[in-house]
Amino acid sequence: MLPIEWDRGPNGHVNHADVLAFVKSGLTATDPLEGASEGDVVAAIAKGAKVIEAEYHAPFLSHAPMEPQNATARVSADLVEIWAPTQNIEATLNLAAKAAGVDIGKVKVHPVMAGGGFGRRGGQLEYVPQAVELSMRMGKPVQVIWSREEDIRHDYYRPISSAKFKAAFDAQNNPIAWDTRIAGQSIMSTVNPEALKKGTDLGFLVCFTDNPYDVPNRRVDFGMRNTHVPVGYWRSVNHSQNGYFRECFVDEMAEAAGMDPYQFRRKLLANSPKQLACMDAAAKAAGWGRSLPQGVFQGIAQVDGYGSYVASVVEASVRPDGHPKVHRVVAAIDCGHVVNPDTVKAQTEGAVAWALSAALYGEITIKNGGVEQGNYHDYPMVKMAEMPVVEVVLVPSYDFWGGVGEPGAPPVTPALLNAMYKATGRRIRNLPIVKDSQPRSAD
Q1: What is the pTM of this model?
Q2: Residue 193 has pLDDT above 90, yes or no
Q3: Domain boundary at 145, 174, 209, which?
């Protein structure tokens, strides 16, 4: 047997500390890409009676579906057939045709049920041409199935990113300025570079360029920091980390203003009726502010995206080891029209499990240029025993058609972290929670 010596390539020396330092350098870059600007942020902050600052971080995340990437191909003289779990049949057709060197009319795709997609099976479908090329070489049908380790270590990850905030208040504790700098790896720069406008990946700045909170002076910019680690679409895409960044900082703003975080949001959402109605529905269903069992606290967050509006209230306690127990999640969703209520509820319930897994445990790290994690023992998911009671409240306004597969996830993480802050008095600004949480003192 010949010993294999792998050439790790030009990035073989890169470790996670290098990636993290590179990304965070975007927070202090003097040449950021402009995202949005309203008013005069610098002047408003200079005259503010109170100014607060905070910095948040979100790691790379894998899709880690239960069913690894796979495809079956049968290539004959007059037809290329593909059986694949895919979220994008058009891309599957094109990739198979290109791999076989035939016209797209000679390709037939049989879509099959997928054991999890979450964006991984939407655009990057490299397992499809693998199966086609092998079938051509073997002269017979071939099924390609990746191992779990291959699936996790060769993913297109949720981008690593950081956020730096500064907010100013007047003498009456009204917010008068909000400055936002996002740093991280652009998805569009690799999957669709022509979509970039003035060099700015506006998709990376969602939740801030379309921020519904009424603050008169706002600025949003982007320190783009693209690493060698491949990134792609991950359920709720950039809403996932930006919703967490924004809604946790809104709680910090509420505290600085001396207000209840729900009432503070209501004040700033006066001109955003859909977000306000959805949040009110979640707060009412959860009994916001009611008496809770000892040690249990509530957190709230609201994030709109994918044409829908979602607000979540999380009830959680924190064990002495610093790890939370999530008791209940109430999620209200306005997706416009509701055709099948059970589907909307199921998608929202699944989004809660998805978001909790990422918030509690999710982190992909880099060593010697490659991904360290490889299976569920070092990239864990929420187990059934950890799942809270999930209550979904449908509040359709019946005047638009919104999505339900993506928007349920973003408010969950910040609502949990906001509840944890009430329990411990400590802000967690780096995910995953299990890595950043600390044991509580004896008192």
Answers
A1: 0.95
A2: no
A3: 145
